[in-house]
Amino acid sequence: MAIQRLDNVLIVVDDLDRVISFFVELGMELEGRAPIEGRWVERVIGIDDVRQEVAMLRTPDGHGRIELATFHTPKAITPEPQEAPANTLGIRRVMFAVDDIEDVVARLRAHGADLVGELAQYEDSYRLCYVRGPEGLVVGLAQQLD
What we know:
globular; 9 strands; alpha+beta
């Protein structure tokens, strides 16, 4: 067997508390939070003199996880353009299945989120949207229709 599962997706952020609050409001659960530094992490990520703090969040079903990291040293680098459009190369968003998409969007707006485009329906199957949250993070939301 080549792989067992997708373990987590890393998102580097400046304001760890704000982004944790955003994902907790979305419905994720904070597993833990800790400082990370030392030669072992420097060897893994290929950057010297690393001091960071990480938080691990999991989906309610326990299968999906997001790792958030803020770098104290060296300072994180801001990509250009900061709010890249959906056709930019690289990872653009993480998609979550939700029960009530309008409720989730309303709750995330309280954390500064805005729709990237609009809430749309795909045939009789899904209601979908992209939401831009703190620090320009884009999450997709999908509500399966009965």
